[in-house]
Design a protein that fits this description.
- The protein is of the alpha/beta class.
- The protein has 4 domains: 111 residues, no CATH class; 62 residues, no CATH class; 55 residues, no CATH class; 201 residues, Uracil-DNA Glycosylase, subunit E.
- Helix content is 45%, strand content 13%.
- The protein has 19 helices and 14 strands.
- The strands form 4 sheets. Strands 3-4-5-6-7 form a 5-stranded mixed sheet, covered by helices on one side.
- A hairpin with a 3-residue loop joins strand 5 and strand 6.
- Helix 2 crosses helix 4, helix 3 packs across helix 4 and helix 14 packs across helix 15.
- The longest helix has 23 residues.
- It starts with a helix and ends with a helix.
- It binds uracil (URA).
- Uracil binds next to helix 13.
């Protein structure tokens, strides 16, 4: 029915003003707006001004296009109740409102489908000023009238007609008119249609096919008037085979994360047996123990790959964790000072740690160093062994108990062992000494001076031993 919205509004307003209750009106679904409703013979009350919430008007403006013949009566029944209880328009528990909202949603969806699924065919003469198109569409609700403006805006520079069983929209020379509906017209063949179908078939991705989602978005009832829909069943049937073919033809380049995954897989084997060049990446990706979850990063050893001297500390400290380099914090500075005093060129040594991640306890903003436990040392020994094999130094200096334990398997108190060289078959000799942090933490000046001197003596000895390999044999 053309003009139903305006007609209903007028009729409802008048009835409300006259105080005509819903049970006194018979709403029709007539072809002409003037036949929209009939009142029973009633004693009319006095006319009164009626106001209704704005949101009801918006709701009614959509619901009037629903195909359910009861829509007018439902709208009027609800607006009648609104007179005394305007808050009902937001009452989610109200059954009448719920029905109207559902109808509104149906109409909205139907409008959306109309915008998406109307398919025009060119009907005009080749030499005409404006091109001319026509479409046949079968909407579920009376959505031509409220949706016509969309087509006017979209196709303003051409003439077009949308025929439907109930109402037809005709746009000619920039003017829109609505006409009565009609039977499906015989529209001429349109060459552009094949192009469109080819395009549709080409954008279809068989690997992404979700039939349910597709038919919900493009309900089957619309298919018969959409040229591209004829190929959908075949495309669905062919999809699995096409998706398989696509997968087989896919490039065989490894995924960007393969390196990482391999490194992690190797990290769980009993010994690192990857290529030497892969060692840094493998250490960086290590997740062999929980320390990796809390530290900023794994701190790798640094120095020449065939350094004759290897220096091993305990684990990165706060500064090392942030900078990603070993011995750059206070302990590192002390080590550098003493190393310089004894002629140890740090840049010629390979400097690393027994444990690659910083272990700490958070205390406010501070991160307090925690000594790694045996299991953490064991997990990380994997990397240390790989570094030792790779660098193959003439001598290793183990600074502190953790390094000594990792390199010799013996975790006994360090003070008794410092200055000794431990020799084991197939392993470079290990000179045990104090850790610079031990010196920094010493409570009294005497202990500190003594410990610093002991480290100095041991590092000087290391320099000597590396320079004179023969001495190493008798160390
Ligand atoms: N202490 C260590 O044992 N290693 C470092 O890298 C820093 C401090």
């Amino acid at each position: 029915m053309i003009g139903a919205a305006e007609a209903w509004r007028k009729a409802a307003r008048g009835a409300l003003q006259d105080g005509i209750s819903p049970d006194q009106i018979m709403w029709g679904d007539a072809d002409a707006p003037e036949d929209l409703f009939d009142t029973f013979e009633v004693a009319r009350g006095r006319a009164e001004a009626v106001t209704v919430p704005r949101s009801f008007i918006a709701l009614a403006n959509r619901v009037v296009w629903h195909s359910d013949p009861s829509r007018f009566a439902r709208l009027y029944g609800f607006v009648w109740r609104l007179r005394d209880a305007p808050h009902l328009i937001t009452d989610r528990g109200d059954a009448d409102l719920a029905t109207l909202r559902a109808m509104e949603k149906n109409v909205r969806r139907c409008q959306h489908k109309m915008k998406a699924f109307v398919r025009f065919r060119e009907i005009g003469e080749a030499e005409a000023n404006r091109r001319s198109f026509a479409a046949w569409f079968e909407p579920t609700h009376f959505t031509v009238e409220p949706t016509a403006d969309f087509f006017v805006r979209r196709f303003a520079d051409m003439d077009w007609r949308i025929y439907t069983p109930s109402v037809s929209a005709v746009f000619e020379d920039g003017k829109l008119r609505l006409e009565a509906g009609c039977d499906k017209p015989d529209l001429p063949h349109d060459g552009g249609e094949e192009l469109w179908v080819t395009y549709f078939q080409n954008i279809f991705n068989p690997a992404r096919l979700k039939v349910q989602a597709m038919t919900s978005e493009m309900p089957k009832k619309y298919w018969k008037n959409m040229p591209e829909a004829a190929s959908i069943p075949q495309m669905i049937a062919d999809a699995p085979a096409r998706a398989r073919a696509m997968a087989e033809a896919a490039p065989t380049l490894p995924h960007i994360r393969v390196d990482r995954v391999l490194a992690q897989a190797q990290a769980h084997q009993s010994a690192w047996d990857g290529p030497a060049a892969g060692l840094p990446a493998a250490i960086r990706n290590c997740a062999r123990c929980e320390l990796a979850c809390h530290a900023t990063q794994a701190v790798l050893g640094e120095g020449p790959k065939t350094a004759p001297l290897m220096i091993v500390g305990e684990q990165p400290g706060d500064k090392e964790d942030l900078q990603g380099r070993p011995f750059v914090g206070p302990a590192g500075q002390l080590f550098d000072e003493i190393a310089e005093e004894v002629g140890l060129d740090r840049s010629q040594a390979y400097v690393t740690n027994a444990v690659k991640h910083f272990k700490f306890k958070a205390q406010g903003r501070r991160r307090i160093h925690q000594r790694p436990n045996r299991s953490e040392i064991d997990q990380c020994r994997w990397w240390l062994d790989a570094e030792v094999r790779r660098v193959a130094p003439r001598l290793i200096v183990a600074m502190g108990a953790t390094a000594a334990e990792a390199l010799t398997g013996n975790g006994d108190a360090i003070l008794k062992r410092r200055g000794t060289v431990q020799i084991a078959d197939g392993h470079p000799p290990v000179l045990i000494t104090l850790h610079p942090s031990y010196i920094l933490r010493a409570r009294d000046i005497d202990t500190r001076l003594q410990a610093a001197e002991q480290l100095r003596v041991d590092l000087r000895r290391a320099v000597d031993l590396v320079a004179a390999p023969r001495k190493l044999a008798s160390a």
